[in-house]
Write a structure and sequence with these properties.
alpha/beta, 324 residues, globular, single chain
Length: 324
């Protein structure tokens, strides 16, 4: 699941070199605890155990607590109360726990409201594949519950190899038979591997609200990012997933699984961009890319206002430390 809560990771900006592995190591520790709870206690008892776990992170993760507070103040329009900070951390822990049940195929405990599946069904019927672009918002893994009624729905997560290895190791413990498909990026042949997966009718899942900067590049010269107003202040967003979709001439579907408390999730699909037709003019390609990226950020901002405790970026998203 996205968004670890260690002090070390919290000090790193979301574009800093090494950020990706730091975030996932802290996330890995959280998931190992959740695996033990899942296998030993089951979901009903585990839901109660989440309360002391939430209190622990709230008390002993000062960086995550600080960044959560700054984010909630923007999302809520007021200084968050202690109860609201607790709710944010508890929502994160709940989604991490539920992720493990989704990948085990134990979806009967969940109440899913699903909207927009027609765009997914149309894509599957065409057999050409598409990109699913999500965010660290709610649960991307709720998609597996939707896929239980759609055997043709095959999703591979496009991830950095270190992140993929760590997450796969944990999920293998709790769901050894789950087909956790990963396409590692940042390697020779990654683009061809994604193309082949899409050509076979698969869906490629990416999360678009984080990026990994190139080592040695200053923050002011972030490669492949665009500063876009988000919750009242410019923030860096990567256009990499959209450029890849344009290069491979694919449809881009926005996907989110909002956590509504208990076992309730609100899963939505919506077409974000359609790059299946080639665009000859370079200026027009850039315009279309920027239009799609701004549409993505706009959807993310609207959903953050709708469900503010669902966004799990417990780090310095706006590079505020660098500005001080």
């Amino acid at each position: 699941m996205s968004g670890g809560m260690s002090e070390r990771a919290g000090k790193a900006a979301h574009g800093a070199p090494g950020w990706s592995s730091q975030r996932e190591r802290s996330n890995l520790a959280t998931m190992r605890v959740m695996v033990w709870i899942t296998l030993t206690l089951g979901r009903r008892v585990a839901r109660w155990v989440l309360h002391p776990i939430t209190l622990y992170f709230l008390a002993f993760s000062p960086a995550a607590r600080r960044h959560s507070g700054r984010y909630l103040e923007r999302a809520l329009g007021q200084r968050p109360t202690l109860a609201q900070r607790y709710r944010h951390f508890h929502a994160f822990a709940s989604v991490v726990l539920d992720r493990l049940f989704f990948v085990r195929g134990q979806v009967q405990a969940f109440d899913l409201a699903v909207r927009g599946t027609e765009v997914v069904d149309a894509t599957l019927a065409e057999g050409h594949g598409a990109f699913l672009l999500g965010a660290h918002l709610g649960s991307f893994e709720a998609l597996h519950a939707v896929g239980a009624s759609r055997p043709a729905l095959r999703v591979a997560m496009v991830m950095y190899p270190d992140n993929a290895r760590m997450i796969h190791d944990v999920l293998a413990q709790v769901a050894p038979n789950f087909p956790f498909r990963v396409i590692a990026i940042g390697r020779p042949g990654s683009t061809l591997a994604i193309r082949d997966w899409l050509d076979a009718g698969g869906l490629a899942g990416l999360l678009g609200d984080r990026f990994v900067a190139e080592a040695g590049r200053p923050t002011a010269a972030r490669h492949g990012t665009v500063d876009i107003p988000f919750l009242g202040r410019p923030a860096p967003f990567t256009d990499g997933p959209l450029r890849l979709a344009m290069l491979l001439r694919r449809r881009v579907i926005f996907m989110v699984g909002l956590y509504r408390g208990g076992g309730r999730y609100d899963v939505r699909f919506e077409e974000l961009a359609d790059f299946r037709q080639p665009i000859a003019d370079a200026a027009e390609r850039e315009r279309r890319l920027h239009e799609a990226l701004r549409a993505y950020v706009g959807r993310l901002e609207a959903l953050v206002h709708e469900a503010p405790f669902n966004w799990f970026n417990f780090h310095d998203f706006w590079d505020e430390a660098a500005a001080r």
